[in-house]
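[audit] Reproducing an earlier prediction to check determinism. Same input, same settings, fresh worker. If the tokens differ from the archived copy the diff job will pick it up downstream; this log only records the rerun itself.
[audit] input (536 residues):
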Amino acid sequence: MPTHTADAVVIGGGHNGLVAAAVLADAGWDVCLLESTHQVGGAIRSTELYPGFTADLFSAFYPLSAASPVLRSLELEQHGLRWSHAPSVLAHPPRPDGGPAAVLHRDRERTAAGLADHDPRDGDAWLKLCAQWDEIGETFLRTMFTAFPPVRGPVQLLRRIGTAEALRLARFLALPVKRMGEELFASEAGRLLLAGNALHADVPPDAPVSGVFGWLLAMLGQQHGFPTPVGGTGELAAALAARAGAAGADVRTGEHVERIEVSRGRAVAVHTAGGLTVRARRAVIADVNAPDLYRRLLPADAVPARLHADLERFAWDTAVVKVNWALDGPIPWRSREVGEAGTVHVGVDELGMAAWSGDIEARRLPDPPFLLVGQMTTADPAHSPAGTESAWAYTHLPRGMDDDAAADELAKRVDAVLEEFAPGFGARVLDRTVQRPGDLQAADPNLVHGAVNGGSAQLFQQFVFRPVPGLGRPETVVGGLYLGSASAHPGGGVHGVCGWLAARAALGEQGTFGFVRRRVTSAALELVYRDPPSAR
């Protein structure tokens, strides 16, 4: 059986794995990346489902990528990546009557003017929100994108705004998005821009800190837009793979890793289903979901009993159903301004969002569902022939539900919502493909049960609770093994930080200082996962 040796082995070729490979290779390490499928990118992938139409199979718009210092530092534009923007960032028509929609533009003055049409007070409110982001946004992102516990970002913020304002900011960031919208805006339109963005995650609109998700994506959309790669999302994956390869990483596809070999408490090799063994001199980085890492890849006796028990409480985010269409013309929205948006939130109004979320948590199939719609040709004309539209919509199944029958019924309701808000939509469909939860997982094993976030984004599974109560860092209970997937802090989204943090942790454990750091981390992990006295 073939055996190979590398300084580092990266398991998984999603964007986090590719980032980790590039960072380690930049540092001069010999890196071997093993991807189980025959295409890198994970949930960044596009294909031609209908002749002449590019379909983005998973993620499609990338405000976090545009803001990420990690991805910017890789200079992917030098490896073929180009970005494109729709005329407007997003729109949310509250009702199907053709009335004015809430619209986010890349020009803040234009966004504010549109909100002022709904209520004169809301234009100023939006500009104040943007001014707040100008003051704290960079520091907030640095804090979010830093290994836990973050120190530098919060200290800088405290110096800048003072203790009193810091307390008010802390309260603001803890708000449910429903309450945040009510405090900021007089009209439904302003509140929709926050709430619709918040529902990109699996956090109910009345849950604490759900406001952060809406506020963050709205502000990123205002500052950076929601860009998409020219030619399809696969172009982003290709650029990441080219960047890693240019740095010297050996990227191999079709290599399904079956197990990680552990010797004397340290990860020393990985073994694939095809018989390949890759020995790791320094590190193994796993761009796989946390349950897969600890339950499948590692020997059972290498994982403390308390960590096994914590994994029993690991919560997946809700399953996704996605419908892809090739259309012979633009979506015929009743509200004309919706047609210029790359992203559309549609199906429910402000109160309807709360009802939709209640259905999700109560395990009822929503009717109507809340949809995220992508008008990809509007965002990037290279997606399909002139005058046509490559489009998709996704929504969530109720918690704990991922069967095909429920997915098919929900997909029918997706079509019904589009027909209601855009009469004549169905007549423009040339081709329709449904991606059920099982289809998503089959295409990307990390999307377990159709969950796209690497685990719930709710507060109980963020920061030091991600993926389980611990240190909130990429280091694991096995020496030289690092979790670098969306299951690790800071979680889902195409920003590359999970892979970057894992690579930086591996690099930081080298040398004399690294030895001390390694001992301190091991001692902390021992305290966290040591069996309680009652279990001894």
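[audit] rerun output stored. Observation attached for the diff report: The chain has two domains: 3-43+233-314+453-535, 63-230+316-443.
[audit] end
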